[in-house]
């Protein structure tokens, strides 16, 4: 997990950037004594992995992007900017009842299976957590990072072999 995600700490104040997350990953690998990696990035992790590969090309043997974000620049596509305050307001409007329909539309292509509940339950716990306000702030900062820090213009600078894996129904 990167800082602010999953089971990692959720700081009250942190400057989220793909450069910083890549640097955090490099520091972890240094701590573990790992010099060269086969790097896999999924979803937003694809943007982190791409930034890491651009910053530390000598440390990346191969890069695999699995259904990554960052293949396009949303600003260039005309998607309007959402301020961090507006993103935070949107986070606070989230309810347990809205999670399943969102997941159904964006991840499961309208076909729900009971096994998918295991991916909804942690999100409901997230909403009910006493740390939710801080976590929602981190989510708002992350949304801004995705929008304002595209990596797609730098793909041609990647020096290692890259494999892109996207399912036929993925967006």
Verbal overview:
By secondary structure, the chain is of the alpha/beta class. The protein contains six helices and three strands. It has helices spanning 18-32, 44-55, 84-92, 96-106, 117-128, 132-148; strands at residues 37-43, 60-68, 162-165. The two termini are 24 Å apart.
Structural class: alpha/beta
Number of strands: 3
Contiguous runs where pLDDT drops below 50 for at least 5 residues = none
| Main sheet attributes: strand count, strand direction, barrel closure | 3 strands, parallel
Number of H- or I-type helical stretches: 6
Strand order across the largest sheet: 1-2-3
Terminal CA distance? 24 Å
Our Rg estimate from Cα atoms comes to: 17 Å
Global mean pLDDT? 92
| Fraction in beta strands | 5-15%
Tag the structure with descriptive keywords:
single chain; 171 residues; 6 helices; 44% helix; globular
């Amino acid at each position: 997990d990167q800082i602010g995600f999953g089971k990692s700490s959720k700081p009250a104040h942190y400057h989220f950037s793909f450069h910083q997350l890549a640097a955090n990953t490099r520091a972890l690998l240094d701590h573990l004594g790992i010099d060269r990696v086969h790097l896999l990035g999924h979803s937003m992790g694809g943007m982190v992995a791409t930034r890491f590969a651009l910053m530390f090309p000598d440390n990346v043997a191969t890069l695999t992007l699995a259904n990554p974000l960052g293949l396009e620049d949303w600003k260039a596509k005309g998607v309007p900017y959402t301020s961090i305050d507006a993103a935070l307001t949107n986070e606070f409007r989230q309810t347990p009842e809205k999670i399943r329909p969102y997941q159904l539309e964006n991840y499961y292509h309208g076909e729900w299976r009971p096994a998918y509940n295991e991916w909804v339950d942690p999100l409901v716990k997230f909403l009910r957590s006493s740390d939710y306000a801080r976590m929602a702030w981190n989510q708002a900062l992350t949304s801004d990072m995705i929008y304002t820090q595209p990596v797609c213009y730098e793909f041609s600078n990647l020096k290692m072999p890259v494999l892109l894996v996207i399912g036929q129904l993925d967006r």
